Amino acid sequence: MLERLIFEYSSEGKKGYSLPEIDVPAEPVEKLIEQRHLRKELPELPEVSEVEVARHFTRLSHENYSIDSHFYPLGSCTMKYNPKVNEDVARLQGFTNIHPLQPDALSQGALQLMYELEKYLAEISGLSRVTLQPAAGAQGELTGMLMIRAYHQSMGNPRKKVIIPDSAHGTNPASAVLSGYEVVEVKSDNEGRVDLEDLKKKADAECAAFMLTNPNTLGLFEKNILQISKILKEHEILLYLDGANLNAMLGLCRPGDMGFDVVHFNLHKTFSTPHGGGGPGSGPVGVKESLVSFLPVPVIEKKDEHFYLNYAHPKSIGKVQGFYGNFGVMVKAYAYIRTLGNSGLKEVSENAILNANYMKKRLEGYFELPFKVDCMHEFVLSGSLQKKAGVSTKDIAKRLLDYGFHPPTVYFPLIVDEAMMIEPTETETKEVLDRFCDAMIAIAKEVKENPEIVKSAPHTTPVARLDETKAAKELDLRWKGKIS
Amino acid sequence: MGYVPNTEKDKKEMLRLIGVDEIEKLLKDIPEEIRLKKELSLPSPLSEIELKKEMLILSEKNADLLHYTSFLGAGAYDHYIPSVVEHMASRSEFYTAYTPYQAEASQGMLQSIYEFQSMICELTGMEAANASMYDGASATAEAAMMALRITKKREVLVSSALHPNYRMVLKTYLQGIGITIKELPYKDGITDADAISSSISDNTAAVIIQQPNFFGCIEELSAINTITHKFGALFIVSVDPISMGILKLPGELGADIVVGEGQSLGNSLSFGGPYLGFFATKKEYIRQMPGRLAGATADTQGKRGYCLTLQTREQHIKRERATSNICTNQALCAFAATVYLSVIGKEGLKKVAELCLQKAHYAQKEITKIKGFSSPYSAPFFKEFVIKTPVSAERIFKGLLKENIIGGIDLGNYYPELKDHLLICVTEKRTREEIDRLVSKMTEMAKHGG
Q1: Which residues of chain B have pLDDT under 50?
Q2: Domain membership flag for residue A484
Q3: Last residue of a domain, one of A61, A77, A94
Q4: pLDDT score, position B448
């Protein structure tokens, strides 16, 4: 039996809250605010008891996959385990119960944490300074691109175009356009990496930046990165790193050392903070010295052991968040880096790479491997062989749910047909990796012997396959009932 | 300590299958010139015991609001959070889940998003709401961009009584695409109606107003709505969701897009984030909305279920033609807001709003009885109000701080013309005793000249 909507539990007079009696002399509301400003009817929010609320949301939780219950090999998403101690420390009163506008002198712990986290991220990436303000990767991209725009503007011309590989995340072109640029696409070569000849053709003085993911979305290290950087330098084009795949670089190499001018981090990927069912994340941005003056305000500074928020930054691009970013997420990432240190971070990347290569090896005989080279922390398979047998990658993904696994990222990158992008992360045991590979192999066998069971999957989830076309055609985005 | 479970034996077995003898061999695509030859200069790793101790020490360098009496507001509010909210949001089935792209494995999150969207519609009087934006400020900027897309005009009018930080974010978001932003002056605490009439034109894409505004005052939305629509612009209102327990619905008044900061709905202050922006609009504009949407549908057996829908608006499908670049949102914060609104409910929200209203008015009345303290504006207000101080606001603020009272915001930091003005916020959590203590300290300072 599926859980009802919370509204369907409602009945008049039930209540789940506990509020104090009014302790000041009260006046009629209409005396304080004229009637014409007042709401006539109350909002149709549910009237339910606390026990119903607790049971409702607990039951809903049982209808959800999560990293604590399932393996989630989502490529580009880095669904690693979220350490529990980080949750505990992030819930300390001294972190949760502090107001963003309380005086700096009363927020020294928070400012110190942010100051140090910036320093750690700068060291890990080989860049000069970092802003923690962006709330997620895409907002980091916007921040980074606006800084690039401001930089070129300061040189006399903001330029017109941004170069982006055909294998890039969708946020890259969307952020470039939002920053006022046209997108120029550069092809991938037959090894899955940036096509240098095509890049040479497209790079010119009208280009402001090249937005690159490294390792790229096929899980391959852009081994020509130094040549790429050289081509761009000739036209003074800045190199932007989409840091979604930073989990493959920790302690092994640094974006700053390979020519990147701007980098965004995803604390909710590389630095283990939980995804929260879609957010909150945190998307700090690091820059080279030449772009420091454009960082968003406030910048966190330290003077004589005192930390403070500095708004006196005249060339700044401004603000992208109401306050300083997702502080609660930063606390968890800080705790993670303090727990791991240099050796622990290096171990993360090495094992993420080992796990991915192991899975690739185990699966390559059963699914098409479009690029037959060593991968970094993730790899892409194609379901094209299965597609010929009438079973799509979507079917395979849904069938994996029956085996107790969250499917990989599917249909991305766009340059691979029927793509399945697999990123195991370093926090899974070999046993889990083996069980997942066994399930994939079993499904490949089912495709040959009993394709219907795959095509009609999933069979074991709370609901069977959902009709997405109906959802889009007969839009139903809200409960429209009336509470009795 | 780390979180890598591979043993040496596991690693050997895995390497053997791959066909190499060491992990180093898998790194050969990283050019030798850029391999990191040194150790990262980071503090030494900590054990769990050491980490907890260090983090506690760091957290205690902050003055948490259990030890101070706070009258701070200005976009981040100290409202009561029922215990059940944190408990539900701490369920790892939710907080360790990914974005619900695989609907059949994510019904819990999807249904709660659908409930969230429904509740936001109820709060704002709008027809459709999305699954959340980053915060109130970026939601306001996204609303402006949506209005620019819909109207295809190139200019935005924004009230100077909109939160100064929101205006900064708006400016940042619009700088790349070269949009003109005109600021409307305020008069007697609310947006100057005459200035709207003289600034608006056929080039105006949107008029952006905050309700209650940054000064806590209630804006004349109905009149502004009329002028805005006369010129074919869209009316964007940024609201305090708690005030929606008593104030007239912006949707009912004709607003086209209603946004706001949802932190007040069950999310802790957390030094400014993570919070959540909410975003609601009319049916006709749904396809122009930014962000994720959950919709109800049916499975192959005809059973009710939920999935993300209209994804063709989003960046992972539409790329450079997407309605926004947003991907990750503030799902868990929106989830907390959903639990909050469930438990607070219809009557509870009105009660919270009334408690804020009454306590804020009591405080304002008592403060303005003190010689030298006055109320500069006559416009009605909700839970925040402006007080003109007899000496500099900074001096009053510092004097109160000595008594562990954070006496509001020194408005001179945002509006140079308001140097001797405080913005004071009173929520349902402040008691009469706390308000009386604030008043008596202010009285003492008035007597002794600060």
Answers
A1: none
A2: no
A3: A61
A4: 79
The verdict on a CB contact (< 8 Å) between B93 and A64 is: yes
Would you call B328 and A278 a contact, using CB atoms and an 8 Å cutoff? yes
- Statement to judge: residues B154 and B293 lie in one domain: yes
Distance from CA of B448 to the nearest CA of A (A): 24
Same domain, A111 and A52: no
The residue range of the domain holding B426 is 69-79+345-447
Mutation to test the A interface, candidates B104, B132, B340, most A Cβ within 10 Å: B104
Same domain assignment for residues A364 and A329: no
Is residue A308 a part of any domain in this protein?
Answer: yes
Count of domains observed in chain A: 3
Residue B6 located in a structural domain: no
Model ipTM value: 0.98
DSSP-derived secondary structure letter, B312: G
pLDDT of residue A481: 78
Of the candidates A112, A174, A466, which has its C-beta nearest B307's C-beta?
Answer: A466
Give the domain range for residue A218: 85-339
Q: Tell me whether residues B274 and A339 touch, CB distance under 8 A.
A: no
Task: Among A39, A123, A335, select the one facing B42 at the smallest CB separation.
Answer: A123
Mutate to test the interface with A, among B271, B289, B400 (most CBs of A within 10 A): B271
Instruction: Tell whether B253 is covered by a domain.
Output: yes
Choosing from A284, A314, A339, the residue where a domain stops is A339
CATH number, domain containing residue B142: 3.40.640.10
Residue of B122, B173, B218 lying closest to A33 (CB–CB): B218
Q: Is the pLDDT confidence value at A326 over 90?
A: yes
* pLDDT tens by residue, B270-311: 999 999 999 999 999 999 999 999 999 999 999 999 999 999
